[in-house]
Amino acid sequence: MLTVSRSAVDFSGLGGIWDGPSHSGNVYCGHESVFQVFFGRNGCRVLRTKEEKDHPDCYQQQVQKSGSVMVWGCVSALGKGNLHFCEGTINAEKYIEILEHNMLPSRRHLFQGCPCIFQQDNAKPHSAHIAKSWLRRKRVRVLDWPACSPDFSPIENVWRILK
Fold first, then answer.
1. Which residue in 31, 75, 109, 161 has a CA-CA distance of 20 to 30 Å to 141?
2. 150 in a domain, yes or no?
3. Cα–Cα distance between 67 and 35 in angstroms, integer?
4. What letter would DSSP give residue 85?
């Protein structure tokens, strides 16, 4: 735990990357999030005795079908990037496809050739050797990210609002 806390403190001293307009404007954050979705008619199921008639504790919400959808998106101080709906589990190969078709166009749109830094967490698909190699080949500068620190990313606030 000391290592994680130490790296978080070290990270917070990286020149105020989120604080000043000279730094925060060149960072864009990409991340996935899972959203729960419900389908069909939502009705109520009532379990009660005659004595409990119309008692609110006896009503139970009923969902016909439920599921989830994973979404990848990116944001920066300059605006929002692409939003991509993911199918299945994200492995390194799928992650590279997402970056190719969504992150790169978002970077071009948001920064128009100006220097910028991509922020991602340390999830396995993000830190896989092939993903890191792909990012190097595409000349994507990546912000070093402290382990176990997802809440530092501004995009987490976007996901919380949407959920």
1. 161
2. yes
3. 9
4. E
